[in-house]
Amino acid sequence: MKTSTLFPALCGVAVEGAVLWDGRFNDFTSSADLNNWSWSNQVGPYQYYIHGSGTVNRYINLSPDYKNPNDTVSRQGARFTLDSTAYWNGQTMRRIELIPQTKAAINRGKVFYHFSLSRKDTNAPSVNKEHQICFFESHFTELKYGWISGEQGASNPALQWMTNQRTQWKLSEWKANVWHNFAYEIDFGANRVGLWYSEGGADLKQVVAPVSGVSTSSNGADWHLGVLELPRSGYPNTNEDYYFSGVFIEDGAITTKIGGPGESSFYILYQSIL
After folding, report:
1. Alpha helices, H only, the chain
2. Is 50 exceeded by the pLDDT of residue 6?
3. CA dist., res. 139 & res. 82, Å (int)
4. What whole-number distance in Å separates Cα of residue 86 and Cα of residue 165?
5. What domain of life does the UniProt record list for this protein's source (predicted)?
6. What is the pTM of this model?
């Protein structure tokens, strides 16, 4: 596209949407589409390399049944599974994670990282082990579930949100069959991080005002959608399922409606010229 036609087009649609990166699985036929990505063929919205030795359907599966039913924008959600093969690169930690594949500025200015999370009683995550969920490589902000390394006692049913490894907010118990909606409010320039949250179909509300002094470092390819489970002696592994939907990153004013805005024409045009 010529610059003379591109610039007016961008000016005309930039105000229509604030989605910088869209990870809502709307364009996926199945999780096998993740296999289209490689280091030499970086296509699609996700980098898929942090997983076990099995086929992709052992670890990630897609279905309309796996999304928050209150989300009318997402066509389907994803079930992430930790099983007996979910070890990456010879590590002792079980993990299955996706990384945004984008050249958009998801690591600059003030942005909002959105996702919805749920679990079921079947293949429930263990309360006896530490689970790091939707985290950055430096762990400047993340969710944690289960017994956290160094804690007293044997178990912990709380779902906690942290900055710099410190709890800023928590649910005393992560209950089954409830959809929890999150948005990390990250100001990379000001080193501040806040949290927006709601349950079910309710609009997001700010539950933690931006916390100062957070080491908001990211290269734009180190936010991990998924889960990393730390091993713990005396507690054997069992299959665990995690459900995600409504995954996207936006800038500007936050979208509080669950599922977010429809895919903006700005996002479509921006991606088409990268």
Report:
1. 3-13, 265-272
2. no
3. 21
4. 25
5. Eukaryota
6. 0.90
